[in-house]
């Protein structure tokens, strides 16, 4: 499939992007073709031994994603013999912020990868990428939230962008269309770059100014409507684990040292709707 590409040498196009897929973490199959491929291949895909020199020469047994496409490209759907004898195989390239962020390195290896010109791929960078992706989503919805030219802070030697930490739970929305509907007037929603926000459940936000920490949770059957709300509090502070002074400090726990920081909750506003019904918050400002 790759050799038949218009650019078989793998050189970048004029836009600087390679025509070949690199990281593939989502595969979509048409079930009748996939079923046929399983019958023909018996579920067997060619494998090879992979030695990773960047990870202490770790040896693993792997298979190429391209081999899945080869198996499927020769499949005839057994449920309908009138269809084409081959299924169409292709790929779509998406921006990294919406498609991929790995956690595969400790802080030391991540820093080495970063210095070599790659991605750190640590717990801290993946967590930061989630916040960054959600910032971009809210920005695409029309909310006032900074997504670029953010300052950075270094944890365990790895620089992390300091922007609004946004958590959008699946119950709040999983697509841009769903999330956009949660903000009927997004131009009236402002979230500063030092803020944190968690949105979990059936929530609609009309007007909000946030400079601090806000957590809104609506249980199944409940709904929270923010008509108007302005919040300024001390929020959450992120403290470097290297600043710990004794071995009993909470910052010494592995779940924090692997990140290089721990959170200290200074002040938060929690709006919780645990029971069915509608909770309306209207504090004009």
How would you sum up this structure, described in words?
With 285 residues, this protein is α/β, with parallel strands linked by helices. The protein is 21% helix and 28% strand. The chain has helices spanning 31-41, 65-73, 96-99, 107-115, 123-141, 176-180, 254-257, and strands at 48-52, 58-62, 144-145, 152-155, 158-161, 165-168, 189-191, 196-200, 203-205, 208-211, 213-218, 222-232, 235-240, 261-267, 269-273, 277-282. The strands form five sheets. Strands 3, 7, 9, 10, 12 and 16 form a six-stranded parallel β-sheet that branches. Strands 6-8-11-15 form a four-stranded parallel β-sheet. It has a two-stranded antiparallel ribbon with strand order 1-2. Strand 1 and strand 2 form a beta hairpin. The radius of gyration is 24 Å and the shape is globular. The mean pLDDT is 84.
């Amino acid at each position: 499939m790759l050799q038949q590409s218009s650019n078989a040498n793998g050189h970048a196009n004029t836009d600087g992007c390679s025509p070949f897929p690199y990281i593939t973490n989502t595969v979509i199959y048409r079930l009748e073709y996939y079923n046929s491929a399983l019958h023909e291949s018996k579920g067997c895909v060619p494998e090879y031994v992979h030695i990773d020199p960047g990870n202490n020469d770790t040896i693993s047994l792997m298979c190429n994603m391209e081999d899945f496409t080869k198996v499927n490209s020769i499949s005839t759907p057994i449920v309908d013999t009138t269809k084409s004898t081959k299924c169409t195989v292709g790929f779509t390239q998406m921006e990294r912020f919406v498609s991929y962020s790995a956690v595969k390195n400790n802080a030391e290896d991540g820093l080495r990868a970063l210095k070599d010109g790659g991605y750190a791929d640590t717990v801290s960078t993946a967590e930061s990428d989630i916040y960054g992706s959600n910032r971009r989503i809210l920005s695409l919805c029309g909310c006032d939230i900074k997504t670029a030219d953010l300052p950075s802070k270094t944890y365990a030697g790895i620089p992390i962008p300091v922007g609004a930490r946004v958590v959008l739970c699946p119950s709040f929305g999983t697509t841009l269309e769903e999330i956009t509907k949660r903000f009927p007037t997004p131009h009236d929603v402002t979230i500063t770059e030092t803020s944190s926000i968690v949105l979990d459940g059936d929530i609609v936000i009309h007007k909000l100014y946030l400079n601090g920490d806000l957590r809104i949770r609506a249980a199944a059957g409940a709904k929270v409507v923010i008509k108007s709300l302005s919040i300024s509090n001390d929020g959450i502070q992120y403290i470097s684990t290297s600043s710990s002074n004794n071995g009993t400090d909470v910052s010494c726990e592995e779940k924090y040292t692997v990140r290089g920081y721990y959170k200290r909750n200074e002040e938060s506003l929690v709006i919780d709707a645990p029971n069915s019904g509608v909770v309306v918050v209207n504090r004009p400002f």
